[in-house]
Amino acid sequence: MNSPSAPPLSGFDPQAPPAPDLINTCIHCGFCLSTCPSYRVIGKETDSPRGRIYLMDAINQGEADLNPTAVQHFDSCLGCLACVSTCPSGVQYDKLIRATRPQVERNHPRNWWEKLVRGLVFNLFPYPARLRPLLLVLWLYQLVGLQTLMRKTGILDQLFPRLAAMDAILPQLSWRHIFAPELPDVIPAQGDRRYRVGMILGCVQRLFFEPVNAATARVLTANGCEVVIPKTQGCCGALPAHQGREAQSQALARQMIDSFAELELDYIIINAAGCGHTLKEYEHILRDDPDYCEKAKAFVGKVRDVQEFLAEVGLTTPLSPLADEPLLLVYQDACHLLHGQRISVQPRQLLRQIPGVQLREPIDGALCCGSAGVYNLLQPAVADELGQQKVENLVQTGAAAIASPNPGCALQIRKHLQHKGYDLPLFHPMELLDRAIRGERL
Ligand code: SF4
Ligand code: SF4
Fold first, then answer.
1. Is the CB of 78 under 6 A from ligand 2?
2. What are the CA-CA distances from residue 155 to residues 140, 160, 199, 205, 415 (Å)?
3. Helices (H), ranges, 200-286
4. Ligand 2: which residue has its CA nearest to atom 2?
């Protein structure tokens, strides 16, 4: 026990723990609880924003330890930032959880199984050159029927639930995922060049959603952009950043900045919501790096989500209908666009410009689908519950197709559509615009 005269010992280490002045802006009103997906599923105060803020405060004050129970409550947070949008008191929970995660990463020893799963996720996913050969193995795993066997018998679920979670989000692979041709380094604008833009390919996006990147490049060039795609670019660092792996996210951020330096670009475009949010945080990620903090600032100034960019500069190419009848679409708000970047109007504006498109809004549209980076791999039970709710709400709109702006959300929603037996196609908004430009029907 600390002596009454001595200041209490904090359970956090001295490296930038959650700031007390940010913690103290919480007035404990509880407005955020109903919009918090982890609270919605788990139902405990300790798994709500308010509960976690209490916990951070108690650990800061030395009244609680950063023990496995506390870590469990921090781990259960999806980092969706819905609480930031809801809070009437302006609590910057994003900064609080962003300070807490590295504390957990540094000071909480994970058990061997968690280490193995996290090691796999963080040493593979952010590195397309490592992940691509693995896709060949996974393709064979599907091809010879092993995946079907695993799913039918439920062996993986019973023995290794987290591996089963990885298996469950694996899309149907084809040769195209492994041998897809790379996009050229520079793609000229069609017609007069209005802008010269860089394009970020993403790590998961470039392997599992190569058609989305190809469609994005076509939409940009059709609207007067020369598109530059440096091949030295890697992962943006979102996956490790969301889990507090600071050194890894910093290294990836530096590599990304270096890849786009010297290219004389007007903008740097990203089509994945989660990546866009992290790219815009590079100034914070590299704040203590004297060689990169200024470069990070300049880089961030040019980053735009592709929908944000197109809505801002305007479409200049004509769009054709995607169906003979009016097409009912439901746009799924990705948390890192909606709450993280405050982008919700622009995607809808763009989709409404396609002749015949009518948008439907789902119940609980601002609630996370459970994907949340690698959350659905690390916390599969909560993620599954959220995924099921999201799919039901999307289907209930009566829409004929879903538009989703984030690869993680797309994998999660497709998985649950399939589980529920719904045959509802899902597209990235760029794929829909691309088809409308090319006059292709759905
Ligand atoms: S985080 Fe905001 S909404 Fe939630 S309890 Fe605190 S003040 Fe209220
Ligand atoms: S970030 Fe999302 S999951 Fe985490 S406390 Fe806020 S609302 Fe809840």
1. yes
2. 19, 8, 41, 29, 19
3. 204-208, 210-222, 238-242, 246-260, 273-279, 282-285
4. 80
CA of 275 relative to ligand 2 center, distance in Å: 18
pTM value is 0.92
Dist. CA 18 → ligand 2 center (Å):
16
Domain boundaries, the chain: 20-107, 112-179, 186-313, 327-438
Q: Does domain 186-313 have CATH number 1.20.1050?
A: yes
Kindly indicate whether the domain formed by 327-438 is annotated with CATH number 3.40.50. yes
CATH homologous superfamily of 20-107? Alpha-helical ferredoxin (1.10.1060.10)
From atom 4 of ligand 2, which residue's Cα is the shortest distance away?
Answer: 77
Residues 6+ apart with CB under 8 A from 172: 142
pLDDT tens readout for residues 287-342: 999 999 999 999 999 999 999 999 999 999 999 999 999 999 999 999 999 999 99
| Per-residue pLDDT reduced to its tens digit, 2-59 | 344 444 456 899 999 999 999 999 999 999 999 999 999 999 999 999 999 999 999 9
Looking at the DSSP bridge assignments, the partners of residue 305 are 270
